[in-house]
Amino acid sequence: MRENPETRCAVEGAAATLARSLESLNARRNVDGLTVDSLRGVEGDCARAYFGVFDHLILVNKNDFTFRGRSRRPPLDRVNALLSFAYTLLVHDLTAALESVGLDPCVGFLHVDRPGRPGLALDLMEELRPILADRLVLSLINRQQVTSKNFYRV
């Protein structure tokens, strides 16, 4: 990544966008308070910036592993399939951890309560997703530990 100026520029731009979003959250909190809906809006903007540069972080097998944006239910490409799988594992681990300490994983703050949906686990997953799931997916692809031969389309 450091060797490619285009990638570096794109990632630095996304990082700057995320930093500005944090500053705007602090400003809103100090001025008129912060609502859950406004926080969700900023989160959506941040996700757009974050996933907008995700493809730049895929360094090998660009023909087989191209990321054009987040898709789920069903994931439409190999990268999204890997991300969805990693996120599923992470949310299940978080759900188990919450239950093991006596917390209800379905009572979320940012994720709206729905029957059977582990909202609190999904809330906690937001913090861990980039460093655990996304990094794992990128490492598997870039180290060529996962290849197109590991997938089949239904």
Overview of the molecule:
By secondary structure, the protein is mainly alpha-helical. The protein folds into 2 domains: about 1-55; about 65-150, no CATH class. About 60% of the residues lie in helices and about 0% in strands. The protein has helices spanning about 5-30, 35-50, 80-100, 120-140. Helix 1 (about 5-30) packs antiparallel against helix 2 and helix 3 packs across helix 4. The radius of gyration is 17 Å and the shape is globular. The protein starts with a helix and ends in a 12-residue tail after the last helix. The model has no long low-confidence stretch (mean pLDDT about 85).
Brief descriptors of the model:
mainly alpha; 4 helices; 154 residues; 2 domains
Produce the secondary structure layout.
Blueprint: H1 5-31, H2 36-52, H3 78-100, H4 119-142
Helix pairs in contact: 1-2, 3-4
Structural class: mainly alpha
Query: Strand count, sense and closure of the main sheet?
Result: none
Q: What fraction of the residues are assigned to beta strands by DSSP?
A: under 5%
Order of helices and strands: HHHH
**Got a strand count?**
0
Percent helix: 55-70%
Low-confidence segments, ≥5 residues, pLDDT <50?
Answer: none
What is the straight-line distance between the termini? 34 Å
Task: Count helical runs.
Answer: 4
- Whole-number mean pLDDT: 86
Could you provide a short overview of the structure?
The chain is mainly alpha-helical and 154 residues long. The relative contact order is 0.11. The model has no long low-confidence stretch (mean pLDDT 86).
